[in-house]
Amino acid sequence: LELIHLDRANIEHVPQDLCLKAQNLKTLRLRSNKLQELPDLTHCKFLQQLDVGLNDLIELPGRPFQTLGKLQDLLLDRNEIKYLSAELFTGLQNLQILDLEKNNITGIHEDAFLPLNNLKDLNVGQNHFSVLPYQGLKTIIELKAHNNPALK
Q1: Which residues contact residue 75 at a Cβ distance below 8 angstroms, ignoring those fewer than 6 apart?
Q2: Closest C-alpha to 35, from 48, 21, 50
Q3: Sign of CA dihedral 113, 61, 43, 98
Q4: pTM for this structure?
Q5: Helical segments of 4-148, H only
Q6: Lowest CB count within 10 Å: 96, 111, 122, 135, which one?
Q7: Residue 96 exposure: Cα atoms within 13 Å on the Cβ side
Q8: pLDDT in tens, 91-148
Q9: What does the alpha-carbon distance between residue 115 and residue 117 come to, in Å, rounded to a whole number?
Q10: What's the chain's Rg over C-alpha atoms?
């Protein structure tokens, strides 16, 4: 099993053993559900695309992506995420696309983007942060930070 696509399925929880049962998973799409927390992705070592946009995520504690070294696309848009911590993106050295549009981000740690050595496309539009850290954004080709009224 390499692809799971469960958009608009009213899912509130993902089984904790999902990645143990689907260790070759490359694409996980859980867009437009009711998730309040990320599933345990520890054993999804081959995951390349993760889409959890349009859910109810508020916090992303710890290092939820640290074993996802092959991940290239991370879509977290249209949630309720408030803060991006220093360790949040640890392990995502191959990430190329990060979509955080239309959350409630009010703060971003200055080192939040440091692990993202290959990031090409960053969308942080329609949030509420006042400072966008530049550390870790040296490979960016496209940066979208529109409609952030507090951004200086």
Answers
A1: 31, 49, 50, 51, 52, 53, 97, 99
A2: 50
A3: negative
A4: 0.97
A5: 18-21
A6: 135
A7: 4
A8: 999 999 999 999 999 999 999 999 999 999 999 999 999 999 999 999 999 999 999 9
A9: 6
A10: 15
Closest CA to 95 of 118, 63, 121, 113: 118
Edge-to-edge order in the sheet of strand 3-5? 3-5, 27-29, 49-51, 73-75, 97-99, 121-123, 142-144
The alpha carbon dihedral of 116, 121, 124, 130 has a sign of positive
Distance CA 18, CA 4 (A): 10
Contact criterion met (CB below 8 Å) for 127 and 133: no
The 8-class DSSP code of residue 62 comes to S
48-70 pLDDT, tens digit per residue, is: 999 999 999 999 999 999 999 99
SS3 assignment, position 66 = coil
